[in-house]
Design goal:
Length: 189
């Protein structure tokens, strides 16, 4: 129901994908029987043509061919995968799967930046990223998905205000990953 509500509202979703007994499933933790199959998730997504971008967090190595096949089978083109190990990411590059590289306080140099379609900008401990850094990614032709502070237990109001005042929120290719999509839609317009 949560996926349907999000897609019906025109939002995208960030979700985790793992394999369970040879099948791709939606699961943040080690999957168990009954986990939603990835193909079912994609079928729900396809029922909502105005749904936003899918951010597919890859939680296991070696899923490239299955992820690519299921995205193709469901004609999903507005997506990116991210969070794979660097060696595993090479398979996504090889297979032409749209991926984002991560930048954070812990990963200051983005891996495989030239091949990446975008940047997953995370701020685990503080709002360290400034508008200049964000703008540089966009100027390089990269999409940018900014992880909102509340996802790491911090207040988001001042950070959102900085994004709005700077105008970065209006730049093409800029997205925000938030637990407050309705509030973000109203705030950023």
């Amino acid at each position: 129901m949560a996926f349907e509500r999000a897609f019906d509202g025109g939002f995208g979703v960030e979700t985790d994908v793992r394999d369970y007994c040879g099948e791709l499933v939606i699961s943040h933790d080690v999957p168990q029987a009954g986990a939603m199959p990835f193909r079912e998730f994609l079928s729900i997504y396809r029922r909502y043509p105005s749904a936003g971008t899918l951010a597919v967090n890859i939680k296991a190595d070696g899923l490239q061919s299955r992820v690519k096949a299921e995205l193709a089978e469901h004609s999903v083109t507005d997506y990116f995968v991210f969070d794979m190990s660097v060696p595993d990411t090479l398979g996504y590059v090889r297979d032409g799967i749209r991926f984002f590289t991560r930048v954070s306080e812990l990963e200051k140099t983005p891996a495989l930046y030239e091949d990446a379609a975008g940047v997953w900008l995370d701020m685990f401990f503080s709002e360290w990223a400034d508008v200049q850094a964000m703008s540089a990614f966009l100027q390089d032709g990269k999409d940018l998905c900014i992880v909102s502070p509340e996802l790491h237990g911090r207040d988001y109001h001042a950070f959102w205000q900085m994004l709005k005042v700077s105008g970065i929120d209006e730049k093409a290719g800029c997205m925000i990953c938030t637990d407050e999509p309705g509030k973000a839609a109203r705030y950023f317009g």
